[in-house]
Design brief:
This protein has about 180 residues and is of the alpha/beta class. The protein contains 4 helices and 11 strands. The two termini are about 30 Å apart.
């Protein structure tokens, strides 16, 4: 029997939270390295990213190392309906303790690549997040010129994520082992 989204959320949050700090940082560093190489090879320098929340992948080292790139971060501007706005640093604590940009003038980030966090991902690109629907609402408005990549640890991959009609899959997936084009 397949897990429901709430069951997946609970199981994968615990699994990700159980990764030892040193191992979490090692895996995060591998992901940062792969993402940097990917972006350099494709001349990507405008990235919609995320500041790590709880035990999410930590990409902060890439933000400080690549000061020649533009990183846009989400700010929760509405929970009903779920809406994000996007801006650059400086960041400050915001909704639920998330680090958010002080100034967020963009409803769609002016980026070439959108990095999407999650708790679980499957091979079709479907994901389970925290359940607020913020990224699904955003993905409805992302044009074909922006690459959409899920970011998580290999241990967050599952056989099947149950999808709802409003769910929109990511096109790419980055873990500490590889970056995969899921459209193939």
């Amino acid at each position: 029997m397949m897990d429901s989204k709430p069951e997946l959320r609970k199981r994968l949050r615990a699994l990700r939270g159980d990764i030892a700090e040193e191992e979490h940082q090692r895996r995060s560093a591998l992901i940062r390295h792969s993402l940097e190489q990917f972006c350099v090879s494709r001349r990507i320098h405008r990235i919609a990213a995320f500041w790590p929340f709880k035990s999410e992948v930590d990409l902060r080292g890439m933000y400080s190392a690549r000061q020649d790139w533009n990183f846009y971060f989400p700010k929760v501007v509405s929970t009903s309906p779920p809406r994000l706005a996007w801006g650059m640093e400086p960041l400050e604590p915001g909704f639920s303790g998330l680090m958010e940009p002080r100034f967020a003038p963009h409803f769609t980030p002016p980026a070439q690549l959108l990095l999407v966090p999650g708790l679980a991902f499957d091979d079709r690109g479907y994901r389970v997040g925290y359940g607020g629907g913020f990224y699904d609402a955003l993905l409805e408005h992302v044009g074909p010129d922006m690459m959409v990549m899920g970011v998580g640890f290999e241990s967050q991959l599952v056989d099947h994520v149950p999808e709802d009609p409003h769910d929109i899959p990511v096109d790419w997936l980055c873990t500490e082992k590889r970056i995969r084009d899921l459209r193939e």
